[in-house]
Structure formats: structure tokens, C-alpha cells
TrEMBL record, chain A:
GO CC entries: cytosol
Sequence positions that bind ATP: 97, 118, 125-129, 142, 186-187
Cofactor comment: Binds 1 zinc ion per subunit.
Ranges for domain Rhodanese: 382-496
A molecular-function term among this protein's GO annotations: metal ion binding
SMART domains on file: RHOD (SM00450)
The protein's Enzyme Commission number: 2.7.7.80, 2.8.1.11
Lineage: Eukaryota, Fungi, Dikarya, Ascomycota, Pezizomycotina
Requisite cofactors: Zn(2+)
Entry annotation: catalytic residues: 252, 451
Superkingdom classification of source: Eukaryota
Subcellular location: Cytoplasm, Cytosol
Name the UniProt record assigns to this protein: Adenylyltransferase and sulfurtransferase uba4
UniProtKB/TrEMBL annotation, chain B:
UniProt cross-link Glycyl lysine isopeptide (Gly-Lys) (interchain with K-? in acceptor proteins), position: 114
Entries under InterPro entries matching the protein: Beta-grasp_dom_sf, Mopterin_synth/thiamin_S_b, Urm1
Name this protein carries in UniProt: Ubiquitin-related modifier 1
Coiled-coil positions: none
Modified residues (1-thioglycine): 114
PTMs per UniProt: C-terminal thiocarboxylation occurs in 2 steps, it is first acyl-adenylated (-COAMP) via the hesA/moeB/thiF part of UBA4, then thiocarboxylated (-COSH) via the rhodanese domain of UBA4.
Compartments in which it is found: Cytoplasm
GO CC terms, sorted: cytosol
Pathway per the UniProt entry: tRNA modification; 5-methoxycarbonylmethyl-2-thiouridine-tRNA biosynthesis
Family: Belongs to the URM1 family.
Predominant localisation class: cytoplasm
Species, as recorded: Penicillium flavigenum
Keywords, alphabetical: Cytoplasm, Isopeptide bond, tRNA processing, Ubl conjugation pathway
């Protein structure tokens, strides 16, 4: 057995090393391809200019009339709109679930310059929704992977790769060269940074987000007017002057996301971008009332399991005391670049709970050693409660574990608590969610709590102790440190990681 | 002096619809849509407004104990939009808005994923 274990360990080490080497090779290849494509693009541009020179009567290439014909014959676009699209420069911040479909449709529509900024590399867990990335590109920069797909779709546009996360220091310089910004990111701090920079540089902003089965979409700073000009469209800060508490922000990795939901939102971003770019100019000299009225500022809410699927709500106009777009603005390009507008501080960071002492937690390995023999009796000697939600428990779970979702645990006893009556505390001692044989005051068998990463499990242990289930220390209640992720790392490498 | 038409109207209870979206429904028993009936007048004789509704929801409808996921400093927490009949509540007077029969009040938590 010992030598087999060693063989496995050695093979695992070799695989890890080879994978690292492979990732390195992929990155080198990407850089080489980028350089090569840069050269080809230059050649193509020269040819393009030659064409224009010889046939000045026709502003587009023959191939472009065919390629864009189906959208050009739509009256809202026309040749005029197509030329506007060709001269437009659009920046997408984020090349993930929103950025991929948005970039795909903008490239298809013939937007002349498309910039992508993202410092992440492609992961397998991205592929179900980030539709520009291919399985073979796992490990590659997302922007390189996306541009590779976009070039196959439409070689005409100029694609610009920014292989970095957007930082406050760099944001003004990056945004400067573009006409329109798409917020395809996944966190509040970056959303405020994008909105502030877009307002201060006078760029309209198409902002979207998605989680689980829902998505939200807004066109902000449209029309883009100088700070203090009340006729400009509201910005992200006008709608959300204060950021949400960091603990309330749920990511797609934790909350889940359906591909077509985030895809719908990305496609709608591309649509709004095309509408903004091809909108007829409002002639400043003409009477405003006769000009095309712009859509009032709106928030579109998509909900996959509701009917209607989309509802649109009217938003407020610019906030009179907005920190960015009002006459009282305190945020400027200088405060952004210098860091005195501190986005990370403004939005805070989620405090990972460290509620339990070391004596209240055991490692996955220790748990497995204590309860390694799985017999029919073993379930009576201890209880292992998995507090993930039902869907996650259904994907994979530990032997003998019972599922009591944390939402169920935290939603019990609220009414009793709010009434605060002392005599009700007795009734609250044995909560309805706990199986009676586990709750029995005679049993001192240990109770273990486990979740995905070891955060929720701590909250539940604390709650159970507050309810007195540990019989003043006679009964062990603790959690598995690091949750099922460490179970996979320390005990069972075949355990699924989702 | 009493405005009779007003009093007559005021004596009827106020049925409204409340909806939660953007994940807030998870705090309310995973139900998005709730039909509730508010009293015509409160104890002090005033009509129920949004402030009253917030308290009513926490006391009667909220299932989760994490009240600060919904209310902070006696108002909705940052990151939640309140919509009164499909318009941002800031267009309608925010928490002082007095509820009318048949109103549709939606609480939307902002999403950040992408």
C-alpha cells in the first residue's frame, strides 16, 4: 500500500509540474500570436486605405456592404449608423459572462475599435457562460482568448487587449481613448471606479450585472454632460450613493449563475451600446422639444422565472448632491488617480467570519481519522450536519451527513426572538429544524458542522451553542475547518469540486 | 371641518402587493410576491407610509434573522432600491409616501455578478 501511495503522490506532483509548464507555454504562444497578429493588422489597414483611395464613391468595402447589409437596412441604423459604428471606440471592462456576449455582438456589428480590459485567465468553471472562451484556452488571458474568437468572427475591427485589472491610477488614461464604456465587471468597487471615470471624461456608460436567475441593466451618464449640468443622465452614484455592506455582496462563484441569464444581459448591453452610438444627433440649435426625446433613465430588471421576464422602472435624474456629477462634486480625476478617492475603503471588504476558537474546530483529516470506519452504527455515535443549500448538497456530500441549510437555521426562532419573552426561551431550546434524536438532552455524542469553505459552518456552530445544545460544554459542537474544499485536499482527492 | 370624502376613503384597509427581487426574496421565505393588507389608520391617526411598511415587513413577513440584510439605521440598507408602482421611490417622496389601495411596492437588491 505504502509504495502505491508514493507512486500516486509522485504522479500527482508530475501532473502539477507538467500543467504549470503547459500554462506557461500557452502564455508564450498567446504573446507570440499577439505580436504576429499586430503585424497582419497593420498590413490589413494599409490595404483598407488603398481600397478607400481608389473607390472614394463607396465608403465601405464591398465585403462590408454584404457583411453588415442585414443591419444596415434596418431604418434605425442605415449607412449613416454603420459609419458611426465603424468610427466608434468601445471599451469593455471585463471579458467574462457579460463581456463575452457583449463583445461578440459589437464585433459582429462592425464597431471599429473594441478594447477589452481584464487581468484574469480562463478557468474551466467560466466556460458554461463566457461564450468566447474555448476549452483549449484554459489558462490563457481572457482578453487574448476573447480577441482570438472575435478575430475569427470579424477581422475588420481593431482589437485592443489590456491584460490587467482596471486600477484607479490607470483608469483615466485607459478610458481616454474610447467613446463609450461597458461595465461588465463583478464587484462594487470597480463599478464605482468605472462610473466616476466615465462621468469625469464625459463618456456614456452601459452597466449590467447578473446573479443566479436575474440580471439588471442601466444606461448611465447618457447624455454625458459636465458635472453640475442637470440635463446629463444620472450616474451609478446617483442611483446608489452608498455601497452595499460588503457582507451582502454575493458573487457568481458563491450564488451561482445561469449562462443564458448573464448572456441575455451582455447581449442587451451590446444593444444599448449600438443604440447610443447610432442615435441621431440632437441639434443644439434646434428646439429641444421637437428633437427626438431620449429614453428617460431606466433600470431594466430581468428575471428568468418571473412573468414578464423584463420589467423596466423609471430612475431618478442626476442627484443634486452627487459626489461626482453634481456641482458639489468632490471626486475628480486627480483624486481618483492619486488614490485619495479610495474605492476599496469605500466599499469595504467582506469580513470572513472567524467566530470559533481553535478548540471548536477540527481539520478534515482529523475528522476522517476519528470516524473513518463507516459502519451501520456509526451514525449514532456522532452527527455531521451539512449546512449548504439543498442543490449543493445534492451534488456531493459526506457519508452519513444530514442536510440542514443555513437559511433554514437562521430563519427559525426569529419571531420568538423579536418578542423577547423569557419563558419562550425554553421552547426555543430545541429548534424545529434539528432532528429530535440529535437534540436529545441525554446524548453527548459530538455534532460536527460542515459547509463548502468553512464560513457558514462557524455561524451555525455559534448559533447552536447559543441555543444551549452543547449542554454547557458537555457535548462537543464544532465545525470542519476549511469545509469540503479541505476534505478534498486532505482526505479524498476524488471528491467533486464544483 | 372634517373632509368627509377623505374620512370615508380612509376607513377602508389598504391592500397592497409587495415584491422582493435580486435575492431579497431569500430573506422572506423564498417568496417573491406577497399580498398584504395595511390598516386604514395607525394608532396615532396617520396613514400607513413606507416607513410603517418597512417595520411591518420585518415584524410580520421576514423569516431570516439577519435584519441588517434588509434594514440599516431605520431605513432600507444601501444597495436596495425601493420602487413605488415601477418608479424609483425618490420620485415619490421616499419613506414618507402614503400607501394607496392597490399599490405595488418592489424591493430590489442590486446585483454585482458578471
Amino acid at each position: 500500500m505504502g509504495s502505491l501511495d508514493e507512486t500516486c503522490a509522485s504522479l500527482r506532483a508530475q501532473i502539477t509540474a507538467t500543467e504549470a509548464q503547459l500554462a506557461g507555454l500557452k502564455r508564450d504562444l498567446a504573446n507570440a500570436e499577439q505580436a504576429a497578429q499586430g503585424e497582419t493588422a497593420t498590413t490589413a489597414e494599409i490595404q483598407h486605405e488603398d481600397h478607400n483611395g481608389e473607390g472614394r464613391r463607396w465608403p465601405l468595402l464591398q465585403e462590408e456592404y454584404k457583411r453588415y447589409g442585414r443591419q444596415m437596412i434596418v431604418s434605425q441604423v442605415g449607412l449613416k449608423g454603420q459609419l458611426k459604428l465603424r468610427s466608434a471606440k468601445v471599451l469593455l471592462v471585463g471579458a467574462g459572462g457579460l463581456g463575452c456576449p457583449a463583445a461578440q455582438y459589437l464585433a459582429g456589428a462592425g464597431v471599429g475599435t473594441i478594447g477589452l480590459i481584464d487581468g484574469d485567465t480562463v478557468e474551466v468553471s467560466n466556460l458554461h457562460r463566457q461564450v468566447l472562451h474555448r476549452t483549449k484556452n484554459v489558462g490563457k488571458y481572457k482578453v487574448d482568448s476573447a480577441i482570438e474568437s472575435l478575430r475569427e468572427l470579424n477581422p475588420h475591427p481593431t482589437y485592443i487587449a489590456h491584460r490587467t485589472h482596471l486600477t484607479p491610477e490607470a483608469a483615466p488614461a485607459v478610458f481616454q481613448d474610447y467613446d463609450l464604456i461597458l461595465d461588465c465587471t463583478d464587484n462594487p468597487a470597480t463599478r464605482y471606479l468605472i462610473s466616476d471615470t466615465a462621468v469625469l471624461l464625459g463618456k456614456p456608460l452601459v452597466s449590467a450585472s447578473a446573479l443566479r436567475t436575474e440580471g439588471q441593466l442601466m444606461v448611465l451618464n447618457n447624455p454625458p454632460r459636465a458635472p453640475g449640468d442637470k440635463t446629463g443622465g444620472p450616474c451609478y452614484r446617483c442611483v446608489f450613493p452608498k455601497p452595499p455592506p460588503a457582507d451582502s455582496v454575493v458573487s457568481c462563484a458563491d450564488g451561482g449563475i445561469l449562462g443564458p441569464v448573464v448572456g441575455t444581459m451582455g447581449v442587451l448591453q451590446a444593444l444599448e451600446a449600438i443604440k447610443v452610438i447610432t442615435a441621431p444627433e440632437i441639434d443644439a440649435a434646434s428646439d429641444v422639444t421637437t428633437a427626438h426625446p431620449r429614453d428617460p433613465p431606466s433600470l431594466h430588471i430581468f428575471s428568468a422565472y418571473s412573468s414578464p421576464l423584463v420589467r423596466t422602472i423609471r430612475l431618478r435624474s442626476r442627484r443634486a448632491n452627487c459626489a461626482v456629477c453634481s456641482a458639489e462634486a468632490t471626486v475628480t480625476l486627480d483624486t481618483i488617480k492619486s488614490g485619495s478617492t479610495d474605492y476599496v475603503f469605500f466599499c469595504g471588504s467582506a469580513s470572513l467570519p472567524s467566530l470559533l476558537g481553535p478548540e471548536e474546530r477540527i481539520s478534515a483529516r482529523e475528522y476522517s481519522e476519528r470516524h473513518s470506519t463507516v459502519t451501520s452504527d456509526s451514525s449514532r455515535l456522532y452527527t455531521i450536519i451539512d449546512v449548504r443549500d439543498e442543490a449543493q448538497f445534492g451534488i456531493c456530500s459526506l457519508d452519513n451527513s444530514i442536510n440542514i441549510p443555513i437559511s433554514k437555521i437562521l430563519s427559525s426562532g426569529h419571531s420568538a426572538g423579536s418578542q423577547g419573552a423569557d419563558n419562550e426561551q425554553q421552547a426555543a431550546q430545541i429548534p424545529s429544524w434539528l432532528p429530535s434524536e440529535v437534540a436529545s438532552s441525554e446524548s453527548t455524542n459530538p455534532i460536527y458542522v460542515v459547509c463548502r469553505l468553512g464560513n457558514d459552518s462557524q455561524i451555525v456552530v455559534k448559533k447552536m451553542k447559543e441555543l444551549g445544545l452543547d449542554q454547557h460544554g458537555k457535548r462537543f459542537i464544532g465545525d470542519i475547518r476549511g469545509g469540503l474544499r479541505s476534505w478534498k485536499e486532505q482526505v479524498d482527492s476524488s471528491f467533486p469540486e464544483y | 371641518m372634517a373632509d368627509t370624502s377623505n374620512v370615508a376613503q380612509g376607513e377602508f384597509p389598504v391592500p397592497i402587493t409587495v415584491e422582493f427581487t435580486g435575492g431579497l426574496e431569500l430573506l422572506f421565505g423564498n417568496e417573491r410576491k406577497h399580498k398584504i393588507v395595511l390598516p386604514a389608520r395607525l394608532e396615532d391617526g396617520s396613514r400607513p407610509n413606507i416607513s410603517y411598511l418597512l417595520k411591518y415587513l420585518v415584524d410580520n413577513l421576514m423569516k431570516d434573522q439577519r435584519i441588517d440584510m434588509f434594514i440599516m439605521e431605520d431605513n432600507v440598507r444601501p444597495g436596495i432600491l425601493v420602487l413605488i408602482n415601477d418608479a424609483d421611490w425618490e420620485l415619490e417622496g421616499e419613506e414618507t409616501y402614503e400607501l394607496q389601495q392597490g399599490d405595488n411596492i418592489v424591493f430590489v437588491s442590486t446585483l454585482h455578478g458578471g
